[in-house]
Amino acid sequence: METQPIILLQHATIKNDDYPILQNVNVSINKGEFVYLIGKSGAGKTTLFRSLYADTRISEGEAYVCGFDVTKIRKSKIPMLRRKIGIVFQNFKLLKDRNVYDNLFFVMRATGWKNKKEIDERILKVIESVGLPDKVLYPIHRLSEGEQQRVGIARALLNNPELILADEPTGNLDPQTSEEIMNLFVSINRNYNTTILISTHDYIMIDKFKARLLYCENHSILEPNTDNN
Known about the structure:
The chain is α/β, with parallel strands linked by helices and 229 residues long. It is built from 7 helices and 10 strands. The chain has helices at residues 45-52, 78-83, 100-110, 116-129, 145-157, 175-192, 203-208; strands at residues 7-16, 19-29, 34-38, 60-65, 68-69, 85-89, 163-167, 195-199, 212-217, 220-222. Strands 6-7-8-3-9-10 form a 6-stranded mixed beta sheet, with helices on both faces. Strand 4 (60-65) and strand 5 form a beta hairpin.
């Protein structure tokens, strides 16, 4: 039996009020793929991401994400969808008045974890996986921007996601730190077979870490006929 893609959009349209942000979008991304989404600011990349985790409604067409029909998903099922998706933001979106552990603990309790021992074990595992085992009790404001993004990635990994959506994850970082973060995404993709979709303007990293490219332009998603292997 053929496995359904992690992301499958067919003739999908996303509107803001009556204005189409994206229309007639056809995209298929399989488990374990590493994909870039590029395009100008305002082209609809973030809107697409928000539609994938059911924060923005897809008004027409079909859309399946991690086995959920996001065009018909009930509000009560949205948390189940989001447990399968890890989200990484450009501006990190961490709780600056708390330490690393408390940031991750907050997310785990909010997504249904109850056993303190299991929570502690999972937090230590993901913090180690992003290279910050000695920073678990550090206040967020004492971390560099690169370290804060590593915490953001650790947060995305907490629930063993099938899919990671990273929205401009190197946008605020210097070139060396950007390369370290991209190496981390590549490692996660290879070690866990996690599907990764990254929106980015960082063409240096795209050239260095070659992968499948999708273009967001003219209210649609296009794929060039190029071989990135």
